[in-house]
Amino acid sequence: MNVIFVTNCFLSTFVLLTTHNLPKLINLTKNSEIMKTVSSIVENYIKTKPFLLNALSLGIINLTSLSRNIMTELESEFGKEVKQGAVVMALKRLTEELDFRLNHKINKVIKNIGEITVRSALTDYTFAASDTVLNKQADLITDINSFPDIFYTSSRGVNETNIVVSNSITHLVEKHFVHEKLIQKLDNLASITVKLPKENIVVPGIYYFIFQRLAWEGIIINEVISTSNEFTILVSEDQVDVAFKVIKDLKN
After folding, report:
1. Widest CA span in the chain
2. Is-contact 51 102, C-beta < 8 A?
3. CATH architecture for the domain at 116-249
C-alpha cells in the first residue's frame, strides 16, 4: 500500500511538473524549429551572393548591419515576420561553418599549388563548329610538329572551336582555317598555367576561390582551359604580371 502511494505520488508529481512546463517545452521546440528554418533561409540567401559569402568567411562584415539590410527579403521568403536576433544568430553560425568549409579545406589545396607557367605572345582564335574543323586541326598539328617551343592548345564546345597558338605560327592557322567561319581573334595575350594537387577534384570552391581573387584585382580572363589537375587562363599581356602575382601570393 505504501509502495503504491509513493509511486502514485511520484507519478502525480511528474505529471504535474511536466504539465506545468509543457508550454515552455513546446515553446522551446517551436523556437528551435523556427531557428532551423531561418538558418536554412539565411544560408540559401547568402549562397546566392558569392562575394558576400566570402566576406562572411573572412569575418569583415558587421552581422547586425547585414541582418537589417536583408530582413525584408528573408521575411518575404519566410512568409512572416522574422526576429532580427534570429537572423544574427543564423549568420553567426553560418560564418563559423564557412570559416572551416571555405578556408581550411580550400587553403590546404591552394597551399599545395604546383608550378605556375607563363607564356606570352599568344593569339586566340574562335571558329564556328563545322564538319571540317577537326580535319583542319589535324592538318595544323601536322605542320606545327616541326616547330620547337611553340604554344598550342584547343578546346571544342557545342557551337565553337577555340585554338590558342604562339604568334609565330598564326600564319599556319590562317592558312588551314581560311574557309572556316572566324568568330573572334584576340592578339597580345599571355597564358598562366597552374598545376593543382590531385585533391582539387574533391574539394568544392577551388576555382571560385582563385578566380574571385583575380576579379578583385580587375583581371579580365579571356579564356579558361582545364584538365583534371591543371588549368590555363588567357589574359592580356598588360595584365599578366598582376594575374601571376595574385595566383603566386595565394600560396603564401
Report:
1. 109
2. no
3. 2-Layer Sandwich (3.30)
